[in-house]
Amino acid sequence: MRNALRYLFLATTVVALAAFGSGAAIATTILKPNVDAVATITPSAGQEVGIAAPVTIRFANPVADRDRAERLVDIRATEPLPGAFSWSSDRELTWTPTSFLPARAPISVQVGNARTEFRTNAGVVADADMSAHTFTVSIGGALARSVPASMGKPGYETPTGTFPVLEKFRSVVFDSRTIGIPLSSPEGYVINGEYAERLTWGGVFVHSAPWSVDSQGNANVSHGCINLAPDDAAWYYETVGVGDPVTVHW
């Protein structure tokens, strides 16, 4: 048909075939935006992280087909590693390992054509026992240190579960308003803290707490954080890596 246009839609391209009176055809390929293009992957290439580190993938464009995007993700050591997916936005996907990653191992991440590789450390694993008021650290499966601790008091209990260290701070300001406690409240505070490791985005940290040393090992008196003596907190800060797990339990 004279001047007729016929379009064939592929996954990533549009091919237009234009038919002319002579019967000849000219094919033109028009690239469509790759909706699965990857902007960043963390941990970044060459980074060393703990054995509970999640992998976060940020796509360059909003992802409409989340199931398809998840199927593009391959995370492995020597074999594929089991994990669970969650979305924090239409561009950001997080993979959390089902169990701990192998220690001292290269971990490869492939998302479509994007690929990176990071490494795990020896595995610094902490156990916070709220009944015994202890904080116990093992490295590579061997006990390294067990110290007195104080966790969240009634009404401000430390959440239970296993949490990877998200961030580390040599110094930080703790402001009760960030966890919903006004300064006008008897529970309100603004405190300069040291040797702190964030466990949740909601404000739970492991940190130095010289003000609660007398309670550490005996009672839970914090607003949800794990309190350690200054020397113990400094040692843990120097020892732990981002991505290392802390398990909190009764």
Question: How would you describe this structure to a colleague?
Answer:
The chain has 250 residues and is mainly β. Helix content is 6%, strand content 45%. The protein is built from 2 helices and 20 strands. It has helices at 66-71, 230-239, and strands at residues 5-9, 13-19, 25-31, 38-42, 48-49, 55-59, 73-76, 83-87, 92-97, 106-111, 114-120, 124-129, 134-139, 142-148, 161-164, 167-175, 190-198, 205-208, 226-228, 245-249. It has a 5-stranded mixed β-sheet, covered by helices on one side. Strands 4-6-9-8 form a 4-stranded antiparallel β-sheet, with no helix packed on it. A hairpin with a 3-residue loop joins β1 and β2 (13-19). The protein is globular. The protein starts with a strand and ends with a strand. Pfam families: Big_10, YkuD. The active site is at 207 (proton donor/acceptor), 225 (nucleophile).
